[in-house]
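Exercise 7b. Backbone tokens:
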């Protein structure tokens, strides 16, 4: 019985990126005035490219770089096998690395999620199917095209004009929240 093969992964790049971000105050303090990400770019022998991303940092970057030999040469359709192999790959070491245990394990999960997103992107392109259909029905299919969430910051007293804007927005299907500054 003849079997049909899927495209094979021929290249994997892990690209750390950083960019400017506003320094926002949150419950844990303030985060830096920049963001970092690790971008995973997979290429298959059919010429398709799949992209995934994860938070930045050395542990996630190194986990993805270490995964390259496990990913190259694999069939795109076998993405679950690839994801499981990378996830279990050096899992025991996660609890020894820098003595951080569960935190290092969480970083591995982020790295694997970036790889899985890139693999799903490749599979969707190979099958000519949107990734949301691979995962199930699109979650926003029931929303009106004009549905958006609107947050209005209020500086100073402008209640009449503001209430008019909110009423007009909600009548057209926009959800609004008000934050007084």
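Sequence design result:
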């Amino acid at each position: 019985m003849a079997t049909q093969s899927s495209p094979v992964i021929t290249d994997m790049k892990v690209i750390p990126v950083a960019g400017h971000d506003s320094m926002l105050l949150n419950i844990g303090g303030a985060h830096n005035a920049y963001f970092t990400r690790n971008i995973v770019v997979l290429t298959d022998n059919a010429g398709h490219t799949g992209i995934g991303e994860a938070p930045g940092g050395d542990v996630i970057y190194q986990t993805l770089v270490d995964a390259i030999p496990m990913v190259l040469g694999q069939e795109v359709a076998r993405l679950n096998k690839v994801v499981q192999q990378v996830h279990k790959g050096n899992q025991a070491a996660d609890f020894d690395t820098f003595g951080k245990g569960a935190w290092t394990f969480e970083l591995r999960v982020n790295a694997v999620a970036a790889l899985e997103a890139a693999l799903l992107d490749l599979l969707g392109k190979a099958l000519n199917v949107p990734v949301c259909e691979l995962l199930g029905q699109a979650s926003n299919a029931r929303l009106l095209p004009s549905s958006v969430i609107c947050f209005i910051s209020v500086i100073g007293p402008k209640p009449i004009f503001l209430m008019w804007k909110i009423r007009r927005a909600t009548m057209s299907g926009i959800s609004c929240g008000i934050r007084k500054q």
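Instructor comment: Residues 143-156, 172-181 have pLDDT under 50 and may be disordered. Helices lie at 58-71, 79-89, 91-94, 102-127, 131-135, 159-171.
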